[in-house]
């Protein structure tokens, strides 16, 4: 079998397998990586261990075999840390005297909520990777085999970058867990308790839509500021853009402060300023996970369940919009919106991407009307101080009497 790339030491090779890969080998399962990562075992037994390998390509060597860079998957320590933190919370909720917070759901439900989010993330990521490797016609970018030949993953990241990312993955897991549990005790009512009387369905739907637009407003300006403020780009957000051809597993591969900032200006501020009831809160967080994974999935098609659900919204975007944002690296100072696409249109940063090139059915009405991939003139809104102002306004608004107290009053505490 021909070897396409091989170092003198024999530590790294790229091979073309002779046999046709089965469906299960087209993607790496994030559900079972802990059991499959056996030190010293040849990675040849699992060709798809290499994240981003196109079907029929196998990469072996330090970047692949060490498996230290996969978010909450092949990294044994990170997987154990996640299981340990969630397991400890569940054990405390079940075995220790109840420490439930008045006006909030129970500690048991908090444990169930965080465990559910972790499981949904893994299952949906596996689903999206199966789509990426099994349906190449839906990919948002052409495959880049040369990345494998140059000892990079298909997303364009080298070993040093991957090692840095795994460090921040660990910090993200610890900080996010502490933040979520801390909110339970710091702000009674943030995690809404069950109500005897539930609002009519149409009111709940409108509140979810309003909550998500408010959430995406804060995240839009946070994201835009991370691009236009030199320090924030160089020291924080550029880590996420190391992946120029993202896959769903890259969704939270970022500096831990970037992930924390999104948590604060995203779900936290939105729930404080426009609270959701218990059922809507669950739906909002699960939907947000699906949407986040999809826009980094590398595919834009009908299999993107969350994006298909929100296509009816004005100015809706598809995964190919965010993928184009990644492909341009630092020049991609456009398409910042996390959900819906409204704020990109309002503030002039929406760009079409590859919609018409990959799958015309995924092009939205505005894509066809706009017909322009990239490039925009800088405006006053790109000034670092101006871009930071909305972020500070949103975060500071929760300190007012109408802020945190809105959560408590909404649940009549």
UniProtKB/TrEMBL annotation:
TM regions (residue ranges): none
Listed GO biological process terms: lipid biosynthetic process
GO cellular component assignments: membrane
Subcellular location: Membrane
Protein keywords: Membrane, Transmembrane, Transmembrane helix
Keyword Membrane: yes
InterPro entries, A to Z: Fatty_acid_hydroxylase, Sterol_Desaturase_Related
Domain Fatty acid hydroxylase residues, every copy: 214-349
Main location, first listed in the record: membrane
GO molecular function: iron ion binding; oxidoreductase activity
Name assigned to this protein: Fatty acid hydroxylase domain-containing protein
Originating organism: Effrenium voratum
